Please model this.
Amino acid sequence: MSMKHTRTPAQLAADLKRTGRRPVPLSKKRHIQISVAMTEAENALLEREARELKLSVSELLMRPWRKES
Model:
């Protein structure tokens, strides 16, 4: 048996002001996915290297094709 909590008018007004996260420009949006087959050991090595470089795995994999590498 849970009691239903009603929101106050101030809480409802605050909800309307929340806009959330700004949309990502289409030029920077990552919307294509690919699959890569690798062993658990290779995946662990890749994730460890990405973590050490403070990059995502995607960014690490894309480095050879990017100018800022």
User: Anything to note?
Assistant: The CA atoms of residues 31 and 45 lie 25 Å apart. The mean pLDDT is 87. The chain is about 40% helix and 0% strand. Residues 32-69 form one domain.
